Amino acid sequence: MMTATQPLRGALLLLPALLVAGVAGGAPSLEFHHRFSARVRRWADARGHELPGGWPAPGGAAYVAALAGHDRHRALSAAGGGGRPPLTFSEGNATLKVSNLGFLHYALVTVGTPGHTFMVALDTGSDLFWLPCQCDGCTPPPSSAASAPASFYIPSLSSTSQSVPCNSDFCGLRKECSTTSSCPYKMVYVSADTSSSGFLVEDVLYLSTEDTRPQFLKAQIMFGCGEVQTGSFLDAAAPNGLFGLGVDMISVPSILAQKGLTSNSFSMCFGRDGIGRISFGDQGSTDQEETPLDINQKHPTYAITITGIVVGNNIMDLEVSTIFDTGTSFTYLADPAYTYITDGVSKFSVLVWSCFNRGIFML
């Protein structure tokens, strides 16, 4: 039996193409409006129509999720529904920029059995996902104005936690690993004296499919149990851990692809209000513009080549390789590009692409 709200859902999908029609200069014309736009909402409200679940507030997390959900449904429909739906965190795909935590982008992740939730920084400039273990002096002090409530991962409290042995393919410090110990790790970051070290563990990460009927699943992944943090991690960055999204095999996107759970891709979108989304296995749309990534096999990072810089009416032809790093708050330029820009203007702004997809930039 069809309810009264069911035909409305289909009608709202058609509203952007049917809302306003007219004639301009003797030729037919048509205005297009987004299905969640104020114009469409006023049209629906005037006729007593309601969107199932309510109208999402523009710019909020629910608004971003609704847009992503609609786009995902449209992409799956266009593919005949046969594609594997992307995955995101079980707590939701929303990401949030936190100004007093270094202006980095954060997401909520749940690991272990029973599940424990952490707010982790998202970093495309590194590979390893690590969480602070129960340790002294490895998180910002409670008195710090930029600190967040400490949250520790304790392997002994998770029934699905297990250590990573020295002979594992993920163990990069085998020379420092004895046959009776867990594989150690140490990550050193670009920021001065910033590092994380500890040992590697395996445990479950809770994920959800992004489609009309979400399904929850547990993925066995590897990550770092951080016993010692230094530098920025004791100040403002990643108080509850860091989620490496890099190219290497130890990153979570790579692990999910190796297990056949998603395609070897992911996307991140950032909104002007600091709220965005993240999806694993997102292949992008067929009509998007693309910029290829320059992958250095010895030191794999997400890098693009800038082929020119324009200041006013002056054009400088050059090729500069730049790294896309969500774990860095500022844009850095080296010479000759830096001198060219600073000599040309006293103030300048840098436009940042709003979406990132592993393998391509989405312009």
UniProtKB/TrEMBL annotation:
Stated family: Belongs to the peptidase A1 family.
Gene, per the UniProt record: LOC125535365
Gene Ontology molecular function, alphabetical: aspartic-type endopeptidase activity
Peptidase A1 domain: residues covered: 105-363
Keywords: Aspartyl protease, Hydrolase, Protease, Signal
Name this polypeptide is given: Peptidase A1 domain-containing protein
Organism domain of life: Eukaryota
InterPro entries per record: Aspartic_peptidase_A1, Aspartic_peptidase_AS, Pepsin-like_dom, PEPTIDASE_A1, Peptidase_aspartic_dom_sf, TAXi_N
Keyword Magnesium: no
Native organism: Triticum urartu (Red wild einkorn)
Kinase listed as a keyword: no
Signal peptide: 1-25
GO biological process entries: proteolysis
Active site per UniProt: D123, D325
